[in-house]
From TrEMBL:
GO cellular component terms, semicolon-separated: cytoplasm
One term of GO molecular function: nucleic acid binding
Record bears the keyword Cytoplasm: yes
InterPro entries: DNA_methylase_N6_adenine_CS, Efm5/EEF1AKMT1, Mlase_EEF1AKMT1/ZCCHC4, SAM-dependent_MTases_sf
Compartments (UniProt record): Cytoplasm
Domain of life (superkingdom): Eukaryota
Protein name as annotated: EFMT1 methyltransferase
Main location: cytoplasm
GO biological process, one term: methylation
């Protein structure tokens, strides 16, 4: 009789340790959710999905960018988050404040946010619902999912369609020239951090006098 274990792929001890750590973190998060009277809009309520090239910002970065957006949008302002769900979730935590938000996102899990959610695929940058009027947002925050000029260029079409003028872009430091070329944005001093360290250095770019310098 053949040994039953033969056809089970063996994970390396390193992978196993990483998995255990991951599950432990998840359990701790679940525990936290339950103990805190779980806030459905908190960062952990929808976990990042690496398959969708999602990388959440650290809590501090998401808060900082959300606060910048609120100030830039002004009283009663409209804010669009394009592929920047962790900033959107931070803005939701400030619910009831004097601004409105829209999230354009490929990940349909965000449809839980109802009418604020717009399914968005950067390959079809202007395939947007009719109620998203051109130049109807005081600021657009965008974080293109891939570090490629094609992705930036297509996302830029969406940004330019939506914004009245102000743009806050987060992307790799290597995209500086393309960001200037396609959106006329300049790098700020503020350095966004992610909840898991990324290999690529990330930066913020704006085209207005922001509080990020």
């Amino acid at each position: 009789k053949m040994d039953d274990d033969d056809d089970i792929p063996q994970l390396s001890s390193h992978t196993l340790a990483a998995l255990q750590e991951f599950y432990l973190e998840q359990q701790q998060r679940e525990g936290m959710k339950n103990s805190q009277g779980f806030n459905q809009y908190s960062i952990g309520s929808i976990e990042e999905d690496w398959q969708l090239s999602q990388f959440w910002y650290s809590d501090e970065t998401a808060s900082c960018l959300a606060n910048e957006a609120v100030v830039a949008a002004g009283k009663g302002g409209r804010i669009a988050c394009v592929s920047a769900p962790s900033v959107y979730q931070k803005l939701k935590e400030q619910d009831g404040k004097d601004f409105s938000i829209c999230i354009l996102e490929y990940d349909r899990r965000f449809s839980v946010y109802g009418e604020e959610f717009v399914f968005y695929d950067y390959n079809h940058p202007l395939n947007l619902p009719e109620n998203l009027l051109p130049h109807s947002f005081d600021i657009v925050i965008a974080d293109p999912p891939y570090l490629s000029e094609e992705c930036l260029q297509k996302t830029a079409e969406t940004i330019k369609y939506l914004t009245k003028g102000k743009i806050l872009l987060c992307t790799g430091a290597i995209m500086e020239e393309q960001a200037a070329k396609h959106l006329g944005v300049k790098m700020c001093k503020f350095i966004p951090k992610h909840s898991r360290n990324l290999a690529n250095e990330f930066r913020c770019y704006v085209n207005y006098a922001s509080g990020l310098d």
